[in-house]
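Exercise 7.
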Amino acid sequence: MTLKQFFILAAMCSVETYFLTDAFFNQSYWLVGFWAIFLLQNLRKAYIISKWTRYFNSSSPKKKD
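Solution. The predicted structure, written as tokens, is:
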């Protein structure tokens, strides 16, 4: 992912976050779900979610057999 693509994706995520919080505070929960789905898809495209899960999986204690 190039830097230009990342900035476009970051701008889209910030706009979607604004609409998500606006819908939440207006108690329009259908729109909350709508914007949350779009936000999660864009975060997955930016590999932010996979980085977090990789970080948490590596920091969790390992089970010994």
